[in-house]
Specification:
Elements lengths: L15 H9 L9 E4 H9 L1 H10 L1 H23 L6 E5 L12 H21 L3 E5 L8 H8 L3 E3 L8 H8 L4 E3 L4 H6 L2 H15 L11 E2 L12 H13 L4
Parallel strand pairs: 1-2, 2-3, 3-4, 4-5, 5-6
């Protein structure tokens, strides 16, 4: 099955949309796409249960798949970063769930994160940032992501795991923190509660007077702006953010 699988190549990727954007976007605008879904793609290809068994029963197969997946994403990162309209690379892979990681932290450090490090090095070599989107509880590997992989910012925070303000206290002086206005809260909250939450978050992550400290914070949702978030609630979040620090 491994030999017969039609492994994708960078030459198979249609860069037509990026080529159009390269010519058409204003100088002060950029685009990005999530890249480097290393662990996710490994488990998608094998199935999670099979992956768990193969880590112990057939580690050479796991390594062979990772070589294919990782090499592709390093190449894709390089290709994206060759475009002026792409100001950053954004790695992904959802390496956590509510209480821990779906593979051991040791496995992630040994097998998964080195590929993200290569992607980060590729982006940095092109003068681009390397951001990381990952859902779940990554507390056990955050030090590795910051110090070894070299991520420039971390995205995806959930109140049930760790509120973004707490994450900023723990890591905000070492890496930029993105988003964190909890998706469930945005769905259920009313306008007054959302505005208060935005102000409190910005107070905690931007020094209160708007001057900032640490490596940076960017206001946004805790995860993807899902289609079941009321549009008005999302716009209230943005509106309160724009008003913050304005006399």
């Amino acid at each position: 099955d491994f030999e017969a699988y039609p492994w994708p190549k960078i030459s198979d990727v249609d860069f037509g949309p990026l080529e159009w954007l390269e010519k058409s976007l204003p100088e002060n605008m950029g685009v990005y796409d999530l890249t480097a879904h290393i662990l996710e793609m490994l488990t998608f290809l094998m199935g999670y249960e099979t992956f768990c068994y193969k880590v112990a029963d057939d580690p050479d197969l796991v390594d062979a798949i990772l070589e294919k997946v990782g090499t592709f994403y390093v190449g894709l990162t390089k290709a994206f970063c060759d475009f002026r309209c792409v100001p950053l690379a954004w790695g992904s892979g959802d390496m956590g769930f509510r209480t821990s990681t779906p593979a051991s932290p040791e496995f992630l450090r040994k097998k998964i994160l080195p590929w993200h490090r290569k992607c980060a090095e590729t982006a940095h070599g092109k003068g681009k940032l390397y951001l990381m989107h990952n859902c779940g509880n990554l507390a056990e590997v955050m030090d590795t992501l910051i110090d070894d992989v070299g991520i420039d910012a971390k995205h995806s925070f959930e109140d049930a795991i760790m509120p973004v303000t707490e994450a900023f206290k723990r890591w905000g002086k070492r890496v930029a923190i993105l988003g964190g206005i909890d998706v469930d809260f945005l769905i259920r909250g009313d306008e007054e509660a959302i505005r208060l939450r935005v102000r409190e978050t910005l107070d905690a992550c931007m020094g209160g007077d708007g001057t900032g400290f640490g490596t940076g914070y960017c206001l946004g949702t805790g995860n993807t702006v899902a289609n079941y978030i009321p549009v008005d609630n999302f716009l209230v979040m943005l509106d309160e953010g724009r008003k913050y620090g304005v006399a």
